[in-house]
Amino acid sequence: MVKPPLKSPGSELRRQMSEGIVVMPGAFSALTALAAYKQGAKSVYLSGGAITNSLLGMPDIALTTLNEMSTVAAQACQVAPVPVICDADTGFGEAWNVVRTVLEMERAGLAGIHLEDQVSPKRCGHLDGKEVISCAQMVSKIRAAVSAKRDPAFMIIARTDAKGVEGIDSAIERAKAYIDAGADAIFPEGLTSEEEFAQFRAAISAPLLANMTEFGKTPLIPAARFGELGYQMVIFPVTALRVMLKAVEEFYHDLLETGTQAGWMDRMRTRAELYETIDYAQFADGDSAWANL
Hints:
By secondary structure, this protein is an alpha/beta fold. The chain has 2 domains: about 10-240, Phosphoenolpyruvate-binding domains (TIM Barrel); about 245-290, no CATH class. It is built from 13 helices and 8 strands. It has helices at about 10-20, 30-40, 50-55, 65-80, 95-105, 135-150, 165, 170-180, 195-205, 225-230, 240-260, 270-275, 280-290, and strands at about 20-25, 45, 85, 110-115, 155-160, 185-190, 210, 235. An 8-stranded parallel β-sheet has the order 6-5-4-3-2-1-8-7. Strand 1 (about 20-25), helix 2 (about 30-40) and strand 2 (about 45) form a beta-alpha-beta unit. The longest helix has 20 residues, at about 240-260. The chain is globular and about 55 Å long. The model has no long low-confidence stretch (mean pLDDT about 95).
């Protein structure tokens, strides 16, 4: 049901983190964020890669704009009454761009964003050939982001891609500098083993976010195991998009071969089920109540 975003979603996310690992399904639209919430998600993650793929049909190489990302974020926060974290890539520019990014993303109703230390145009964190900006440049961005927050609970999560470029020791040192600059949590990207996740945890005192993407450099690790390793958040950024795309492509193929959707009737949401997900009845009730005032 459309409604104003949570008043302090960052506070709610922090409360959840204090109780154990927060599992964040990846969403890429208002509908997928709503679907995750309806299935029981307590928090949701908006993936920049999945939004770019879905919105533009293009790769995740910094082609989406701040306005496009913040619009999707606002739409998601209006229908999914849970904390939502959004990918903000490199902040869409330098320090002043980061300030505007924080203002727009917080206004959208998010619990927080993550900013990464890649050179723009960035690449997927699990591809080779990445470059990172200097630690000093990233520290400036984090300071700018922290200064722009209105709600102190709004989370600035610093993502470092340095492990795949400079090695894990450098990534850890960068993470420490980012915490000193005011980052609320650290997102170490591209780790390749449980041992590396444990090494990061042992070195960093701040909350940590793990990326449990598939077909990348990280082996499949259950959320419960990340909890045992001392991580506070785990995201599944593009999983739902990949599941959706496989099903959609298979359906299109079958439809174009047979000319009918008959073989798919038991593999789709019914009209009634779709209406239940989007709370159609509550909109009709609102129309009736307002018309009778």
